[in-house]
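Dear Dr. L.,

I hope this message finds you well. Following up on our conversation about the binding site, I have prepared a predicted three-dimensional model of the protein together with FE2/S2 (inorganic) cluster. For your records, I am including the exact sequence and ligand specification that went into the calculation, followed by the structure tokens. Please feel free to forward this to your student if that is useful.
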Amino acid sequence: MSTTIEKIPAKFGETKRKDLWWLEPLLYFIGLGGFVVYATWAAFQGNHYEYGPYLSPFYSPELVFDWWKFSPAFLILWIPAGFRTTCYYYRKAYYRSFFMDPPACAVSEGCKKYTGETGFPLIFQNIHRYFFYLAAIFIVFLWIDAYKAFFFDGVFGIGIGSIVLTANVFLLSCYTFSCHSFRHLIGGFKDSFKCGIQHKVYEKVSCANEHHMLWAWLSLFSVGFADIYVRLCSMGIWTDLRLM
Ligand code: FES
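The resulting structure of the complex is given below.
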């Protein structure tokens, strides 16, 4: 029995694939690029991030100091930005869509040497687990914001914004706690499992982890939309409907 080993094409973009392999990186580029442009613009604004009991997630927790002369968003956003930038899933997405390294499976990046993430600057991707710890703390603040979004001048009520902020923190929680680092943190003790509750939690986190890509995209859109919602209500362009 003979085995044929095909040579991998070495020229950039060369492939034997016949499907629309370029579509996925193109959609990544549009989705991630659009979000980064909007989030940067919104962070620079430094206004219209509150409306009634609603607080934009880009500005939460709200930190205001006399000595800080820039938008308060910059005190916050480096944490979720670092968390997403070093996320195992997003790395794949932006390595493909922004750096074409490689553009897709079985599509040549035209590069002869593979250095992985062991050298500068990509070795800093290993900091992800520490961003996870910080991001988990932020989730607590965002749930508090969602709770406050149900009280209008101290009276319980439900507005569309209450639902938007609650849905957003739910999706962000799913994204954060389906993180690979959390799975490793919860699942093992050195090289072995602890049985009992820890193993059960590990199974649940593993289950959520299977859908990490979905949570990554849904939470990206929801956090952007939550800021847009609060911003447009604050600017008087949208009216926040009260359901109760
Ligand atoms: S792997 Fe994506 S958030 Fe940790």
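In brief: The longest strand covers residues 50-51.

With kind regards,
A. P.
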